Amino acid sequence: MSTASMHTEDHILEYAGAFRLVRKIAQGGMATVYEAEHLGPAGFAKRVALKVIHPHYAKEKTWLQLFIDEAKLSANLVHGNIVQIYQLGEVDGQYYMAMEYIKGPTVRAIIERHRVLETPVPLAISAYIASRVCRALDFAHNFVSSDGDRLDIVHRDVSPNNIMATWDGHVKLTDFGIAKANTSIDPMQKSPQMLMGKKHYMSPEQLLALEVSGRSDVFAVGVTLYELLALEPLFYEDATELLIDEVTWRPLPSVRELVPDIPRPIEEILTASLDRDPNKRPTAAAMGRALDKWCESQAVVATPDRLQEHLATILTDSYQPPTASEELTKFSNFKRGLRRADGKRHNWWSRMFKRA
Ligand SMILES: Nc1ncnc2c1ncn2[C@@H]1O[C@H](COP(=O)(O)OP(=O)(O)OP(=O)(O)O)[C@@H](O)[C@H]1O
Ligand SMILES: [Mg+2]
After folding, report:
1. How far, in Å, CA of 237 to CA of 246, rounded?
2. Ligand 1 contact, 9 CB (< 6 A)
3. One domain for residues 122 and 247
4. How many domains does the chain have?
5. Which residue's alpha carbon is nearest to atom 1 within ligand 1?
6. CB distance 111 to 228 below 8 Å
7. Cβ 156 under 6 angstroms from ligand 1
8. What is the pLDDT of residues 226-270, one digit of tens each?
9. Residue 193: enclosing H or E segment and its boundaries?
10. Domain residues for 150?
11. Taking Cα atoms as reference points, which of 93, 106, 82 lies closest to residue 33?
12. In terms of domains, do 249 and 180 share one?
């Protein structure tokens, strides 16, 4: 984007009086993301992320309608593992979306960091991240309108870029439904089937522009989980025709070759999520449950605290403690903390347990 149009964006949003832009976070093909403050009376200011849609997209009526429709569908998706949308706004034909501001890295950044460090992502951390994404998806896939109608929301763009971790160890999926608008029309190309989402994470049916369902998102979680485990993308091909071959029929590489000590249950969950036939894939709920079951069987249970500790360890330069507290809160380790190293419960816990 040129400096001039960047100023136009700034000007329009500041002029509207609603937002103060703090900094530009990133500029992508479809939008620019800012950290901003949503202003209210008497100095009220709420930190938000503002996604400002590039003007050439907003000029394309069909694209705009899809974008608005999807934003309307996702507006009420309020869930702990989903980045919440606050507002869809328009000023002088310029569209923006205000959403929950996430302090923390994307899963893409976590993967990249591990590649640099040449250390694997701990299995429990990978399983925990994927399990939380499954929870977000299960919520969205089964979401009903206030009239009780199923909305059949499909994310369509699950990828490491759209999964964020907060510094205190929570996992949040972002950009719900945006890919529908994204993949349907590309105003720059004037080609209706142009694929603009992260095509290397798409299921066979989505890549072939067939009907998608919640199971298409499950496939994308599988591709993301593979990358967390192997620290290498599952699909490489750049040319769309070759990628289609790779995604639809070429034998998948064995994760065990790259991660020899992968536990059998994780390998099975991964394989099932990557089935070419959507009907043979688990639902997001079933995949999440299976991951949770494995996590619970581990000596060190995956929790937000654990992810927070992990992020603090690997991202030393950018890590920002979420509060001024000098020690990590261990609330979510409550039950685990009650087990002694020898595996026996503390007496007082047993007493409380009996009383309850
Ligand atoms: N809610 C948010 N809070 C904080 N940072 C965000 C938020 N949403 C996005 N970002 C940051 O902005 C970057 C760009 O996001 P954007 O959604 O425009 O592109 P992308 O996720 O890389 O690709 P796409 O969403 O098109 O697949 C992200 O990588 C992330 O660093
Ligand atoms: Mg995104």
Report:
1. 7
2. no
3. yes
4. 2
5. 101
6. yes
7. no
8. 999 999 999 999 998 999 999 999 999 999 999 999 999 999 999
9. none
10. 107-310
11. 106
12. yes
